[in-house]
Protein backbone atom coordinates (compact mmCIF):
# COMPACT_ATOMS: atom_id res chain seq x y z
CA UNK A 1 0.00 0.00 0.00
CA UNK A 2 1.32 3.42 -0.91
CA UNK A 3 1.73 5.81 1.98
CA UNK A 4 0.68 9.35 1.14
CA UNK A 5 1.80 11.77 3.80
CA UNK A 6 0.61 15.33 4.32
CA UNK A 7 2.43 18.58 5.14
CA UNK A 8 5.90 17.12 4.84
CA UNK A 9 8.96 19.34 5.17
CA UNK A 10 11.11 19.25 2.03
CA UNK A 11 14.21 20.63 3.75
CA UNK A 12 16.07 17.33 3.42
CA UNK A 13 14.84 16.74 -0.10
CA UNK A 14 16.42 19.79 -1.77
CA UNK A 15 20.15 20.50 -1.76
CA UNK A 16 19.55 24.23 -1.28
CA UNK A 17 18.17 23.22 2.13
CA UNK A 18 15.16 25.50 1.76
CA UNK A 19 12.51 24.75 4.38
CA UNK A 20 9.18 24.50 2.58
CA UNK A 21 6.33 22.01 2.94
CA UNK A 22 4.63 19.70 0.47
CA UNK A 23 0.86 19.33 0.88
CA UNK A 24 1.16 15.65 -0.13
CA UNK A 25 4.25 13.47 -0.31
CA UNK A 26 4.77 9.92 -1.50
CA UNK A 27 7.82 7.71 -1.73
CA UNK A 28 8.05 5.68 -4.97
CA UNK A 29 10.09 2.49 -4.40
CA UNK A 30 9.02 0.43 -7.42
CA UNK A 31 7.89 1.27 -10.93
CA UNK A 32 4.54 -0.38 -10.13
CA UNK A 33 3.94 2.14 -7.34
CA UNK A 34 3.35 4.68 -10.11
CA UNK A 35 0.71 2.47 -11.69
CA UNK A 36 -1.03 2.12 -8.34
CA UNK A 37 -0.82 5.83 -7.56
CA UNK A 38 -2.24 7.04 -10.83
CA UNK A 39 -5.10 4.53 -10.82
CA UNK A 40 -6.66 7.01 -8.42
CA UNK A 41 -8.01 9.86 -10.58
CA UNK A 42 -7.49 12.49 -7.88
CA UNK A 43 -3.73 12.47 -8.52
CA UNK A 44 -4.25 13.36 -12.17
CA UNK A 45 -5.93 16.65 -11.24
CA UNK A 46 -3.43 17.90 -8.71
CA UNK A 47 -0.14 19.67 -9.34
CA UNK A 48 2.76 17.22 -9.13
CA UNK A 49 6.47 17.43 -8.63
CA UNK A 50 8.90 14.55 -9.14
CA UNK A 51 12.02 14.76 -6.99
CA UNK A 52 15.20 12.73 -7.26
CA UNK A 53 18.15 14.17 -5.38
CA UNK A 54 16.51 17.61 -5.29
CA UNK A 55 19.81 19.01 -6.51
CA UNK A 56 18.61 21.24 -9.31
CA UNK A 57 15.66 23.06 -7.84
CA UNK A 58 14.81 26.12 -5.80
CA UNK A 59 11.52 26.24 -3.90
CA UNK A 60 10.25 29.77 -3.50
CA UNK A 61 7.14 28.77 -1.55
CA UNK A 62 5.33 25.75 -0.07
CA UNK A 63 4.34 23.21 -2.70
CA UNK A 64 0.56 22.93 -2.80
CA UNK A 65 0.44 19.58 -4.57
CA UNK A 66 1.89 16.06 -4.57
CA UNK A 67 5.62 15.45 -4.36
CA UNK A 68 6.80 12.06 -5.64
CA UNK A 69 10.15 11.13 -4.18
CA UNK A 70 11.79 8.66 -6.56
CA UNK A 71 13.54 5.86 -4.74
CA UNK A 72 13.64 3.03 -7.29
CA UNK A 73 16.93 1.20 -6.68
CA UNK A 74 19.11 -1.40 -8.34
CA UNK A 75 22.14 -1.50 -10.62
CA UNK A 76 22.83 -4.37 -13.04
CA UNK A 77 25.36 -4.92 -15.76
CA UNK A 78 26.08 -7.29 -18.63
CA UNK A 79 29.35 -7.60 -20.51
CA UNK A 80 29.58 -8.59 -24.17
CA UNK A 81 33.17 -8.66 -25.44
CA UNK A 82 34.28 -5.09 -24.97
CA UNK A 83 30.89 -3.52 -24.46
CA UNK A 84 29.24 -3.08 -21.09
CA UNK A 85 25.52 -2.54 -20.68
CA UNK A 86 24.49 -1.04 -17.39
CA UNK A 87 20.97 -0.45 -16.14
CA UNK A 88 20.16 1.55 -13.01
CA UNK A 89 17.00 2.44 -11.14
CA UNK A 90 16.03 6.10 -11.35
CA UNK A 91 16.34 6.50 -7.58
CA UNK A 92 20.00 5.47 -7.45
CA UNK A 93 22.39 8.27 -6.48
CA UNK A 94 24.22 9.34 -9.62
CA UNK A 95 27.66 9.23 -8.04
CA UNK A 96 27.05 5.73 -6.61
CA UNK A 97 26.45 4.58 -10.17
CA UNK A 98 29.62 6.31 -11.36
CA UNK A 99 31.59 4.60 -8.59
CA UNK A 100 30.01 1.21 -9.40
CA UNK A 101 31.28 1.61 -12.98
CA UNK A 102 34.69 3.11 -12.22
CA UNK A 103 35.45 0.40 -9.65
CA UNK A 104 34.70 -2.35 -12.18
CA UNK A 105 36.67 -0.71 -14.96
CA UNK A 106 33.61 0.25 -17.02
CA UNK A 107 34.75 3.33 -18.92
CA UNK A 108 32.76 6.36 -20.05
CA UNK A 109 31.36 7.97 -16.91
CA UNK A 110 34.56 8.97 -15.12
CA UNK A 111 34.30 12.68 -16.02
CA UNK A 112 30.80 12.75 -14.54
CA UNK A 113 32.07 11.85 -11.06
CA UNK A 114 30.52 13.57 -8.06
CA UNK A 115 27.72 15.33 -9.93
CA UNK A 116 24.94 15.58 -7.37
CA UNK A 117 21.49 14.15 -8.05
CA UNK A 118 19.84 10.92 -9.06
CA UNK A 119 20.09 8.61 -12.07
CA UNK A 120 16.48 9.31 -13.05
CA UNK A 121 17.11 13.04 -13.23
CA UNK A 122 20.25 12.71 -15.33
CA UNK A 123 18.58 12.57 -18.77
CA UNK A 124 16.18 15.42 -18.01
CA UNK A 125 18.83 18.08 -18.27
CA UNK A 126 21.51 15.96 -19.98
CA UNK A 127 23.94 16.48 -17.10
CA UNK A 128 27.51 17.19 -18.06
CA UNK A 129 30.93 18.13 -16.80
CA UNK A 130 34.54 18.29 -17.95
CA UNK A 131 33.87 17.69 -21.63
CA UNK A 132 31.42 14.77 -21.24
CA UNK A 133 27.65 14.80 -21.25
CA UNK A 134 25.16 12.14 -20.23
CA UNK A 135 24.21 11.63 -23.89
CA UNK A 136 27.72 10.27 -24.56
CA UNK A 137 26.99 7.21 -22.37
CA UNK A 138 23.21 7.05 -22.53
CA UNK A 139 21.54 4.17 -24.34
CA UNK A 140 17.83 4.41 -23.42
CA UNK A 141 15.48 5.03 -20.54
CA UNK A 142 12.18 3.65 -19.38
CA UNK A 143 9.52 6.13 -18.37
CA UNK A 144 5.97 5.99 -17.03
CA UNK A 145 3.36 7.95 -18.95
CA UNK A 146 1.07 9.54 -16.40
CA UNK A 147 -1.93 9.99 -18.71
CA UNK A 148 -2.08 6.37 -19.87
CA UNK A 149 -0.44 4.46 -17.00
CA UNK A 150 1.89 2.75 -19.51
CA UNK A 151 5.65 2.42 -19.67
CA UNK A 152 7.57 3.59 -22.73
CA UNK A 153 11.21 3.19 -23.74
CA UNK A 154 12.97 6.30 -25.03
CA UNK A 155 15.96 5.88 -27.32
CA UNK A 156 18.73 8.45 -27.36
CA UNK A 157 17.18 10.13 -30.42
CA UNK A 158 13.75 10.24 -28.71
CA UNK A 159 15.28 12.23 -25.85
CA UNK A 160 16.34 15.14 -28.10
CA UNK A 161 19.36 15.95 -25.96
CA UNK A 162 20.95 19.41 -26.08
CA UNK A 163 23.08 21.49 -23.73
CA UNK A 164 21.30 20.94 -20.38
CA UNK A 165 18.18 20.12 -22.41
CA UNK A 166 15.99 17.16 -23.36
CA UNK A 167 12.47 16.43 -24.54
CA UNK A 168 11.51 15.88 -20.87
CA UNK A 169 12.09 19.56 -20.13
CA UNK A 170 10.36 20.70 -23.28
CA UNK A 171 7.52 19.13 -25.32
CA UNK A 172 6.95 16.25 -22.88
CA UNK A 173 7.39 18.28 -19.70
CA UNK A 174 5.41 16.83 -16.79
CA UNK A 175 4.06 13.92 -18.84
CA UNK A 176 6.54 11.14 -18.06
CA UNK A 177 8.41 9.89 -15.00
CA UNK A 178 11.76 8.21 -15.63
CA UNK A 179 12.03 4.92 -13.76
CA UNK A 180 15.30 3.48 -15.05
CA UNK A 181 18.17 4.33 -17.38
CA UNK A 182 20.44 2.14 -19.54
CA UNK A 183 24.01 3.05 -20.39
CA UNK A 184 26.50 1.89 -23.01
CA UNK A 185 29.99 1.70 -21.57
CA UNK A 186 33.21 0.03 -22.59
CA UNK A 187 36.02 -2.02 -21.10
CA UNK A 188 38.47 0.08 -23.11
CA UNK A 189 39.04 3.57 -21.79
CA UNK A 190 38.64 6.40 -24.25
CA UNK A 191 39.66 9.17 -21.92
CA UNK A 192 38.49 12.72 -22.42
CA UNK A 193 41.26 14.88 -20.97
CA UNK A 194 40.80 18.00 -23.05
CA UNK A 195 39.61 20.01 -20.08
CA UNK A 196 42.72 21.90 -18.97
CA UNK A 197 42.25 21.47 -15.22
CA UNK A 198 42.21 17.67 -15.58
CA UNK A 199 45.52 17.59 -17.45
CA UNK A 200 47.02 19.98 -14.96
CA UNK A 201 45.99 17.93 -11.95
CA UNK A 202 47.19 14.66 -13.55
CA UNK A 203 50.54 16.35 -14.12
CA UNK A 204 50.64 17.56 -10.50
CA UNK A 205 50.16 13.95 -9.43
CA UNK A 206 52.86 12.73 -11.80
CA UNK A 207 50.42 10.53 -13.71
CA UNK A 208 51.31 10.18 -17.38
CA UNK A 209 49.16 7.19 -18.30
CA UNK A 210 45.94 7.72 -16.40
CA UNK A 211 43.34 5.02 -15.74
CA UNK A 212 39.64 5.79 -15.46
CA UNK A 213 40.07 5.62 -11.66
CA UNK A 214 42.71 8.36 -11.87
CA UNK A 215 40.45 10.54 -13.99
CA UNK A 216 37.51 9.98 -11.66
CA UNK A 217 39.65 10.94 -8.65
CA UNK A 218 41.04 14.01 -10.38
CA UNK A 219 37.57 15.19 -11.43
CA UNK A 220 36.30 14.67 -7.89
CA UNK A 221 39.27 16.65 -6.57
CA UNK A 222 38.59 19.56 -8.95
CA UNK A 223 34.90 19.61 -8.09
CA UNK A 224 35.55 19.58 -4.35
CA UNK A 225 38.03 22.45 -4.71
CA UNK A 226 35.67 24.58 -6.78
CA UNK A 227 32.17 23.72 -5.67
CA UNK A 228 30.58 23.87 -2.23
CA UNK A 229 29.44 20.59 -0.66
CA UNK A 230 25.62 20.73 -0.42
CA UNK A 231 25.67 18.74 2.83
CA UNK A 232 27.32 21.70 4.56
CA UNK A 233 26.41 24.70 2.35
CA UNK A 234 23.11 24.55 0.52
CA UNK A 235 23.41 24.99 -3.24
CA UNK A 236 22.23 23.51 -6.52
CA UNK A 237 25.42 23.60 -8.58
CA UNK A 238 25.47 26.07 -11.47
CA UNK A 239 22.53 28.38 -10.96
CA UNK A 240 22.61 29.75 -14.51
CA UNK A 241 23.36 28.24 -17.90
CA UNK A 242 26.38 29.39 -19.83
CA UNK A 243 24.79 31.78 -22.37
CA UNK A 244 25.11 31.05 -26.07
CA UNK A 245 25.11 34.10 -28.35
CA UNK A 246 25.78 34.76 -32.03
CA UNK A 247 29.26 35.77 -33.23
CA UNK A 248 27.71 39.07 -34.38
CA UNK A 249 26.57 39.75 -30.81
CA UNK A 250 29.89 38.55 -29.49
CA UNK A 251 32.24 40.79 -31.53
CA UNK A 252 31.41 44.16 -29.88
CA UNK A 253 31.56 42.56 -26.41
CA UNK A 254 34.97 41.05 -27.19
CA UNK A 255 36.23 44.49 -28.30
CA UNK A 256 35.32 45.95 -24.93
CA UNK A 257 36.42 42.91 -22.93
CA UNK A 258 39.28 41.18 -24.78
CA UNK A 259 39.78 38.67 -21.92
CA UNK A 260 36.22 37.35 -22.06
CA UNK A 261 36.13 33.56 -21.58
CA UNK A 262 34.39 32.00 -24.58
CA UNK A 263 34.11 28.71 -26.46
CA UNK A 264 33.02 28.10 -30.06
CA UNK A 265 29.53 26.59 -30.01
CA UNK A 266 29.13 25.74 -33.70
CA UNK A 267 27.02 27.41 -36.39
CA UNK A 268 28.15 31.01 -35.81
CA UNK A 269 27.52 30.68 -32.08
CA UNK A 270 29.71 31.37 -29.06
CA UNK A 271 29.27 30.09 -25.52
CA UNK A 272 30.27 32.45 -22.72
CA UNK A 273 31.30 31.42 -19.21
CA UNK A 274 28.52 32.74 -17.00
CA UNK A 275 30.80 32.45 -13.95
CA UNK A 276 33.27 34.84 -15.56
CA UNK A 277 30.55 37.37 -16.47
CA UNK A 278 29.20 37.27 -12.92
CA UNK A 279 32.66 37.63 -11.42
CA UNK A 280 33.37 40.65 -13.64
CA UNK A 281 30.27 42.29 -12.17
CA UNK A 282 31.89 41.95 -8.75
CA UNK A 283 29.66 39.22 -7.36
CA UNK A 284 32.12 36.40 -6.70
CA UNK A 285 32.10 35.49 -3.01
CA UNK A 286 29.62 38.27 -2.16
CA UNK A 287 27.35 37.54 0.78
CA UNK A 288 23.94 39.22 0.71
CA UNK A 289 21.78 38.38 3.73
CA UNK A 290 21.70 34.58 3.98
CA UNK A 291 22.62 34.03 0.38
CA UNK A 292 25.44 34.88 -2.01
CA UNK A 293 27.73 33.39 -4.63
CA UNK A 294 30.38 30.80 -3.89
CA UNK A 295 33.89 32.14 -3.31
CA UNK A 296 35.51 29.77 -5.83
CA UNK A 297 32.79 29.72 -8.48
CA UNK A 298 30.48 32.70 -8.97
CA UNK A 299 28.03 30.61 -11.01
CA UNK A 300 26.98 28.78 -7.86
CA UNK A 301 24.52 30.51 -5.54
CA UNK A 302 24.56 29.33 -1.95
CA UNK A 303 22.42 29.25 1.17
CA UNK A 304 24.64 30.38 4.03
CA UNK A 305 21.95 29.16 6.43
CA UNK A 306 18.29 30.00 6.79
CA UNK A 307 17.88 31.56 3.34
CA UNK A 308 14.40 31.40 1.90
CA UNK A 309 13.95 30.43 -1.71
CA UNK A 310 12.55 33.86 -2.45
CA UNK A 311 15.68 35.46 -1.04
CA UNK A 312 17.92 33.36 -3.31
CA UNK A 313 15.63 34.04 -6.26
CA UNK A 314 15.69 37.81 -5.69
CA UNK A 315 19.47 37.69 -5.44
CA UNK A 316 19.63 35.80 -8.75
CA UNK A 317 17.54 38.56 -10.35
CA UNK A 318 20.08 41.16 -9.16
CA UNK A 319 22.82 39.16 -10.87
CA UNK A 320 20.85 38.84 -14.11
CA UNK A 321 20.26 42.61 -14.11
CA UNK A 322 23.86 43.52 -13.51
CA UNK A 323 25.25 41.09 -16.12
CA UNK A 324 22.75 42.52 -18.60
CA UNK A 325 23.71 46.10 -17.78
CA UNK A 326 27.43 45.43 -18.17
CA UNK A 327 27.50 42.99 -21.10
CA UNK A 328 24.04 43.14 -22.72
CA UNK A 329 23.77 39.37 -22.19
CA UNK A 330 20.73 37.81 -20.50
CA UNK A 331 21.51 34.91 -18.18
CA UNK A 332 18.99 32.12 -17.92
CA UNK A 333 18.45 30.14 -14.76
CA UNK A 334 19.49 26.53 -15.06
CA UNK A 335 17.94 25.56 -11.73
CA UNK A 336 14.20 24.81 -11.77
CA UNK A 337 12.23 27.40 -9.86
CA UNK A 338 9.30 25.80 -8.03
CA UNK A 339 6.42 27.95 -6.89
N1 LIG B 1 35.13 31.54 -14.19
C1 LIG B 1 35.44 32.74 -13.64
N2 LIG B 1 34.88 33.08 -12.45
C2 LIG B 1 34.05 32.25 -11.78
C3 LIG B 1 33.72 31.02 -12.34
C4 LIG B 1 34.28 30.66 -13.56
O1 LIG B 1 36.19 33.53 -14.21
O2 LIG B 1 33.60 32.62 -10.71
C5 LIG B 1 35.77 31.13 -15.45
C6 LIG B 1 36.75 30.01 -15.21
O3 LIG B 1 38.01 30.49 -14.90
C7 LIG B 1 36.76 29.30 -16.54
C8 LIG B 1 35.33 29.47 -17.04
O4 LIG B 1 34.78 30.56 -16.30
O5 LIG B 1 37.62 29.94 -17.45
C9 LIG B 1 34.49 28.23 -16.87
O6 LIG B 1 34.44 27.85 -15.49
P1 LIG B 1 34.33 26.32 -15.03
O7 LIG B 1 35.39 25.56 -15.66
O8 LIG B 1 34.21 26.29 -13.56
O9 LIG B 1 33.00 25.78 -15.70
P2 LIG B 1 31.58 26.47 -15.90
O10 LIG B 1 31.39 26.69 -17.35
O11 LIG B 1 31.40 27.61 -14.99
C10 LIG B 1 30.31 24.22 -16.35
C11 LIG B 1 29.10 23.51 -15.86
C12 LIG B 1 29.39 22.82 -14.54
C13 LIG B 1 30.53 21.84 -14.74
C14 LIG B 1 31.75 22.62 -15.26
C15 LIG B 1 32.90 21.71 -15.59
C16 LIG B 1 27.19 24.77 -16.73
C17 LIG B 1 26.08 25.71 -16.44
N3 LIG B 1 28.00 24.46 -15.71
O12 LIG B 1 30.61 25.27 -15.44
O13 LIG B 1 28.23 22.08 -14.19
O14 LIG B 1 30.85 21.18 -13.53
O15 LIG B 1 31.39 23.31 -16.47
O16 LIG B 1 32.63 21.02 -16.77
O17 LIG B 1 27.32 24.30 -17.87
C18 LIG B 1 26.18 22.25 -13.01
O18 LIG B 1 25.62 22.21 -14.11
O19 LIG B 1 25.53 22.31 -11.93
C19 LIG B 1 27.62 22.25 -12.96
C20 LIG B 1 28.29 22.41 -11.82
UniProtKB/TrEMBL annotation:
Pathway: Cell wall biogenesis; peptidoglycan biosynthesis. Its EC number is 1.3.1.98. The active site is at 164, 238 (proton donor), 334. Its cofactor is FAD. GO terms for molecular function: UDP-N-acetylmuramate dehydrogenase activity. Gene3D superfamilies: 3.30.465.10, UDP-N-acetylenolpyruvoylglucosamine reductase, C-terminal domain, Uridine Diphospho-n-acetylenolpyruvylglucosamine Reductase, domain 2. It catalyses: UDP-N-acetyl-alpha-D-muramate + NADP(+) = UDP-N-acetyl-3-O-(1-carboxyvinyl)-alpha-D-glucosamine + NADPH + H(+). It comes from the Bacteria. Residues 18-188 form the FAD-binding PCMH-type domain. It is an enzyme of class 1 (oxidoreductase). Keywords: Cell cycle, Cell division, Cell shape, Cell wall biogenesis/degradation, Cytoplasm, FAD, Flavoprotein, NADP, Oxidoreductase, Peptidoglycan synthesis. Its main location: cytoplasm. It is found in: Cytoplasm. NCBIfam families: murB, PRK00046.1, PRK13903.1. Cell wall formation. Belongs to the MurB family. This is UDP-N-acetylenolpyruvoylglucosamine reductase. The lineage of its organism: Bacteria, Pseudomonadati, Bacteroidota, Sphingobacteriia, Sphingobacteriales.
Amino acid sequence: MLQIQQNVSLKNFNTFGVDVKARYFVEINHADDLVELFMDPQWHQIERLVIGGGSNMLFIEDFDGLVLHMNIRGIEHRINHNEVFVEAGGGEVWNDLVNYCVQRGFAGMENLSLIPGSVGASPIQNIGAYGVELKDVFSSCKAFEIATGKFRTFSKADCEFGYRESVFKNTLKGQYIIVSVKFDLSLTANLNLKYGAIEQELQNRGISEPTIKDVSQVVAHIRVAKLPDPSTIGNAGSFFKNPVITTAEFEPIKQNYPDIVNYPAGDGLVKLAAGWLIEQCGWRGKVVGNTGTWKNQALVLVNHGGATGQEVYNFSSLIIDSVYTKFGVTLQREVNIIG
